User: Fold this.
Amino acid sequence: MNHAEIANDAMERREVAANKLRELSTQSQNRSLTPAERKRETALLDEIAEHDTTAKRHITAAAAEDEAMCITSPLKTMGTKRDFTARSESVNTATPGDLMSRSIQAARGVTTVGTGKAFSPEEMATKFVDLLAPQSVVMASGVNRVQTNAETYSFPVIRSDFTAGFVSELDDLPTGGFGAEPLKVTPRKIAAADMLANELVEDGGSAFMNPVAKSLMRSVSLGFDREALVGTGANKGFVGIANTPGIQTHEAKGGFKDLDAFVAAFGKLEAVNSKATAVVMHPTTWAGLMALRETSGSLKPLLSESAGSPTAGIQRAILGVPVWISSFMPGTDVLAYEADQIFAVWRKDAGFQISDQFGFLKDGTAVRAIARAAIAVPNAAAVCKITVTA
Assistant:
């Protein structure tokens, strides 16, 4: 037998052993296992693990053969391969579709009993977060990313600095002044789910999975952005940047007629030894700023860098600070912050999860994307919210 046939045989044997294990579990559902049954359970678990190892080894070998075949065969241009695609990929080369395909393989048995057959392995969870982050405005703006396995993550928040002073030799050094306390952050679950027809899953491969996976990721990233920017902590969410207690504020009376409000906000950040590295606003707010003119009657936009034609492109920046656009920001609010002072906390158990049991009678496969994340602003003064008032 070739590698693919051996792998199929191992998976079939695994399924037989798994069925026996389920029967044993059903028979002893309301009582403890006898010594003989316990021994039988251990033997079945060992047998399943052995078949898993065999299947994985030969799947990898089959994939290697496919790669060699594709290099020397004109079928390479057609993308013709076997169904087994278990080669490892770096974070930089994996696509969302590849990631979801691997999760489906894991859920269908090419894994160990310990994973529960429904959850992405940890390496998939890491890649999931890496692929998800660029689709988020908040993450793209440069905030720090913290990954943790803990249910709650704590940041040290410095409330006051040490007291320093000049002293003579051998005099007592000045003490006191320092104050700190922990800021505890609990990542919240963000999820999206649906059911796919098995025909599409089996025939489409990663090519079909790519747009599906990207759509799920987009939904999760948008959910994260909404809470990260303007979340209030309601509806099982978390408090976002704009509603963090202690952030600075600035009022722009009568709307934006010039850039003075941004100058004032940036100045407030500088006053607390911080600086603006990102500005986030609603698309209509940015459109209004682009409509501002250098002088009355002029066609040249105020934000234009060109000294010539007003048709030149406009860089999405204000006073050198990059501007990010999000429909979740209210049209009356603009956030300016130092991204290094903001932390996005991600739980490592994020990833795609697959189940064919829920859709068994419909010949479907249920897919879901789940992430756990939250925003932490230990130094609230490093954020300034500009609010437009009448």
User: Anything to note?
Assistant: The helical segments are 3-27, 35-72, 96-107, 122-132, 137-140, 198-230, 260-271, 283-290. The longest helix spans residues 35-72. The CA atoms of residues 136 and 221 lie 5 Å apart.
